[in-house]
Design a protein that fits this description.
The complex is a heterotrimer of chains A (400), B (293) and C (327). Chain A is α+β, with helices and mostly antiparallel strands and 400 residues long. Chain A is built from ten helices and 20 strands. In chain A, a hairpin with a 4-residue loop joins strand 11 (277-286) and strand 12 (291-295). Chain B has a domain at 55-239: MetI-like fold (Orthogonal Bundle), CATH 1.10.3720.10. Chain B is 83% helix and 0% strand. The relative contact order of chain B is 0.12. Classes of the chains: A alpha+beta (400), B mainly alpha (293), C mainly alpha (327).
């Protein structure tokens, strides 16, 4: 009985409520932002710049990491994410800017004196040492008593479930086992910040999916702050609390996984994460309740339920995720937020099907349909004339 | 087609071995000949080995050659390691291309030119620094290190290039300083190349005739110089005996090198097979667990 | 108010300066260490490689004198004035020698080195092929066996050939026993013996690079050529040779360059006709004690070697770039 009004309310929520749903950091299903949790900042990067000859690898970036969070730098190769990570580890010297760890300047301190540890993409296990010697290596460098080293190594081996392999050499281990040893080795010194360079890069696909959550579990159980670098968006979204999308040395957007997917701040981010239909449009009118937009590819208008901070007549981009586009044989009743076309192609992926629909002007729009029913009939098929529609909240208006 | 290839391959290899080993085999056989004539077989005897060990000039030359070869190998491995490190790990510095040229050129220069150049250098330097005027073992050592360092650099550099730099970075990341990284991480990894470079420069120093002839004064005669001058005077069974001993030593060393290589390969291969098998078992276990869940 | 602001500014500026300083110091520290490492090998090579060549060049421009050292000084001081006398006689005498000894020996060296290189290539290619296509276990053993003779002393190997090429040596005995010849052939002291000696000693240097490039050959190309109807001989020249070009060039240079200046082999195996440039240099230096002329001969030899050496470096660099690109 009580459920009905609740769902009813969410369906007929006021325009203000819908608009608020778009505010960063307050999307349902996402952890509150670190600031909101009153966490302590641990690592502060200020105006960090790295120049290679005539090439800017990292362009004056600022970033704050909070105690205990897992932060991912996501970008394609050559975007500067690895350079940034290597500057934190101390392998590259910044051209300018500063890195503060617990308020202390890190630049100029050699890598072997920094309280951060890194897990390398290739794991970089010492080939001539056993698992035990690998894990103990860092502890020996800090001249801990041997009894303490033994204890710590045992603890680490237990943490990554590798107790049986203590006397193996790296080449006697499988890929997943090597990763665990590498993780144990980088955690053994209890670093202030753990750096992960493409943590799943050397694993095959099946193992990758399984190791992601296991890695997060281990990191969370230790409670270490973690900065990872990856080019795999799925990896970033499963593992990280916050993600920074990087391109050409700059941060494009920083936010939680859900925020950067549902609320990209620019066309680059929208296209980078997941797949998306992009429409070139211009704004007809906008007020607090409603914005009307004309797309160049179809006749019907796009209607948004919030205002857009842009002068009438100005160009903008509308991004629409394929899973938010409904496909149907029936013509929608509304006047706005739909277009029509012919099914050009269908990709059957098992869990979902992707429909590629050619609009009358030739433009192709994709729409995904979950395959809920095994033998459902009446679904659109090749060359069917179909209508594509969407909710006003699904549209992302991008001005960049 | 495949059978033809096999036969062809066998013939080629057999011919190559005959060509390479026939002269050496005859040499060894005739070292056990009683006759003073090198080419006419009379009967088996160890006579020439006995006279060889009583020949003080030869013993002295062997000692001189071994001493020079040992110190040459030590020094050129050190220089080669430094040069290889600089060439592979230091990104770029002024005069790098000149450095590459200096370090590789002695390999392609004719020995007579290198020998002459070094002698003239020692004569010139000898006017100011007396140790160079001496032209003894020290001069030969310098000359040998100069041309052996090129080879050791090349050998060590090629191994250096294969090293994964992230392993060094990992060690540094875990708190090891540059010197510690070199001795704990880099050195064990390039050890095979260091040993190979040591043996290479040792044999090259032992083998060198031309450069030593230019550089050495009358007091220091190395083994190849001694053999050369007695060969020029004519064939002698004593040289056969000496050559046989050299061949024996080299083949024993080569055999052991080969044996250790094969053993290592086998061990690595079996370990790899074991690891693969276990990984498979583990995966199966995981899958079974997933199915149950 | 104003003091607060200014102190704030100084603080910012100071922290800025401190930062910059820290970065600079770290960088400087590193280069200092790097240069220390470079210093030892660099100094050694300048002192014992570059300097000798400058000296050899300098001496080639003086004339022989009965003195210690036995050549005229380049720079003299007469009545307080510095005099530099450059003698080009050594070079002119090399080219205008009435008997043409020098020119002939250069040509002879080129001929011997060139032909030996071709023989090595013809003999070495099949061996390298047999090694590269053999089973790994056999390959390792064969590889060792092919290299092993080059670890024994060069003089010893040449001595071995002297014993079997003698008039009453193994080869003549065998040929006579087989009835191929009636009287022993003179083999020592001929060009033939020199070729045999050079091919024997330098064969491993040809086989090694050929072997390594044959190992990298994409054999599916050969199969593709057969599949498209190419005949074996044509396939060999169209697919195998282009793919092993770098190995062929490297191997040829490794044989040609040292063979050109070879002294020991022609001295022991060759006769009067095989006066190669290495022997000339040796004679001028040790027998005639004409250091300036020997230096000039050496410089001229280097000039001849420049072309093949540059070729060799180019091939090596291309190979290196390939390896780097592969990584």
């Amino acid at each position: 009985m009580e459920n009905t009004p609740l769902t009813g309310e969410s369906k007929t929520s006021s325009p203000e409520a819908r608009k608020n749903a778009h505010l960063p950091g307050e999307l349902p299903g996402q952890k509150p932002s670190p600031e909101a949790q009153n966490r302590r900042p641990i690592l502060e990067i200020k105006a960090l710049n790295k120049q290679f000859d005539n090439f800017t690898a990292v362009n004056n970036v600022d970033l704050t990491l909070y105690e205990g969070e897992i932060f991912a730098l996501l970008g394609s190769s050559g975007c500067g994410k690895s350079t940034l990570l290597r500057m934190l580890a101390g392998f590259e010297k910044p051209t300018s800017g500063s890195i503060l760890l617990d308020g202390k300047e890190l630049t100029g301190i050699p890598p072997y004196k920094r309280p951060v540890n890194m897990m390398f993409q290739s794991y970089a296990l010492f080939p001539y040492m056993t698992v035990k010697q690998n894990i103990a290596f860092g502890l020996k460098q800090s001249k801990l008593p041997s009894k303490l080293i033994e204890e710590r190594v045992d603890k680490m081996l237990h943490l990554v479930h590798m107790e049986e392999y203590i006397d193996r050499k790296p080449y006697q281990l499988s890929g997943g086992q090597r990763q665990r040893v590498a993780l144990a080795r980088s955690l053994a010194k209890e670093p202030r910040v753990l750096l992960l360079d493409e943590p799943m890069g050397a694993l095959d696909k099946k193992l990758r999916e399984q190791m992601r959550l296991e890695l997060v579990d281990i990191i969370n159980s230790v409670g270490v702050t973690c900065l990872m670098v990856t080019h795999d968006q799925e990896e970033a979204m499963t593992m990280a609390d916050r993600i920074a999308i990087m391109d050409k040395g700059d941060f494009i957007q920083i936010g939680g996984p859900r925020e950067i997917y549902e609320n990209p701040n620019c066309r680059f981010c929208a296209e980078f994460i997941g797949s998306v239909n992009i429409f070139d449009c211009h704004l007809l009118s906008s007020n607090a309740q409603q914005s009307l937009i004309k797309a160049t590819d179809f006749n019907n208008l796009i209607e948004l339920s919030h205002d857009i901070d842009l002068a009438d007549g100005m160009p903008l981009t509308i991004a629409l995720r394929p899973e938010k586009v409904y496909i149907s044989h029936k013509k929608p009743l509304e006047e706005t937020n739909w277009c029509e076309g012919v099914v050009e192609n269908i990709a059957y992926l098992g869990d979902i099907s992707i429909y590629y629909v050619r609009l009358t002007d030739g433009r192709i729009v994709s729409s995904t349909l979950p395959n809920v029913d095994r033998f459902k009939e009446g679904l659109p098929t090749w060359d069917d004339h179909v209508y594509l529609s969407w909710d006003p909240e699904s549209c992302i208006a991008l001005t960049f | 087609m495949q059978g033809n290839k096999k036969i062809l391959r066998a013939i080629i290899i057999a011919l190559a071995l005959v060509f390479l080993y026939l002269p050496i085999a005859t040499l060894v056989v005739y070292s056990f000949n009683e006759s003073k004539m090198v080419t006419i077989w009379t009967e088996f005897s160890l006579r020439w080995y006995v006279t060889l060990f009583h020949n003080e000039a030869i013993i002295k030359a062997v000692v001189i050659s071994l001493t020079i070869a040992f110190f040459t190998a030590c020094a050129s491995v050190v220089i080669g390691t430094l040069a290889a490190f600089v060439l592979v790990r230091v990104t770029s510095f002024r005069g790098e291309s000149a450095f590459v040229l200096f370090i590789t050129a002695p390999m392609v220069l004719p020995e007579v030119v290198t020998g002459l150049a070094l002698l003239l250098l020692f004569v010139t330097l000898g006017e100011f620094i007396p140790i160079f005027a001496d032209r003894g073992m020290f001069a030969i050592w310098i000359a040998h290190v100069t041309f052996c360092a090129s080879y050791t650099t090349v050998v060590i550099r090629s191994r250096f290039r294969e090293l994964d730099i992230s392993i060094e970075e990992a060690a540094m990341d875990l708190g090891a300083g540059p010197i510690k990284v070199f001795f704990a991480i880099i050195l064990p990894a390039i050890m095979p190349a260091e040993v190979a470079a040591f043996l290479l420069s040792f044999t090259m120093s032992m083998d060198d005739l031309v450069i030593a002839s230019f550089v050495a004064g009358p007091e220091s005669t190395t083994l190849p110089m001694l053999i050369f001058s007695s060969v020029r005077r004519g064939l002698s069974p004593e040289i056969n005996a000496l050559a046989s001993i050299i061949v024996l030593i080299v083949s024993v060393c080569t055999f052991f090198a080969w044996l250790s290589m094969v053993r290592k390969q086998r061990r690595v291969a079996s370990d790899l097979a074991k690891a693969k098998k276990e990984a498979l078992l583990e995966k199966r276990k995981l899958l079974r667990g997933a199915n149950r869940a | 108010m104003s003091t607060g602001f200014s102190s704030n500014m100084t603080f910012i500026r100071r922290s800025f300066q401190r930062q910059n300083k820290v970065i600079k110091e770290a960088k400087h520290d590193n280069t200092w260490r790097d240069y220390a490492l470079i210093f030892v090998p660099y100094l050694w090579m300048i002192l014992f490689f570059l300097l000798p060549f400058l000296i050899i060049f300098k001496i080639s421009l003086s004339v022989t004198e009965i003195a210690i050292p036995p050549y005229s000084p380049l720079v003299t001081f007469e009545e307080g004035a510095m005099q530099i006398i450059l003698h080009l006689e050594n070079y002119t005498s090399i080219f205008t020698d009435p008997d043409g000894t020098y020119i002939r020996s250069y040509l002879k060296s080129l001929q011997v080195a060139g032909l030996s290189t071709i023989f090595c290539l013809l003999i070495g290619f099949p061996i390298a092929w047999a090694l590269a296509t053999a089973k790994p276990a056999l390959r390792n053993v064969m590889f060792m066996l092919i290299i092993m003779p080059s670890w024994t002393s060069l003089v010893v190997r040449i001595y071995a050939w002297m014993t079997i090429m003698k008039k009453d040596g193994l080869i003549n005995d065998c040929l006579m026993a087989l009835g191929i010849i009636d009287s022993p052939i003179q083999m020592l002291q001929t060009d033939f013996a020199v070729y045999v000696g050079i091919v024997y000693c330098y064969l491993p240097y040809m086989v090694l690079p050929l072997f390594s490039s044959l190992m990298k050959v994409d054999y599916s190309l050969i199969e593709a050529a057969y599949d498209l109807g190419c005949r074996p001989v044509k396939t060999f020249f169209n697919t195998l040779i282009p793919q092993t070009k770098s190995g062929i060039v490297a191997g040829s240079m490794l044989v040609f360059i040292p063979a050109l200046g070879e002294y020991v082999i022609p001295e022991l195996l060759g006769g009067k006709s095989s006066i190669l440039i290495g022997r000339i240099l040796w004679q001028e230096f040790f027998n005639n004690r004409d250091w300036p002329l020997a230096s000039a001969v050496a410089i001229t030899m280097l000039m001849i070697l420049v072309i093949p050496i540059i070729l060799f470096y180019k091939v090596e660099r291309r190979e290196q770039e390939k390896i780097n690109a592969g990584k």
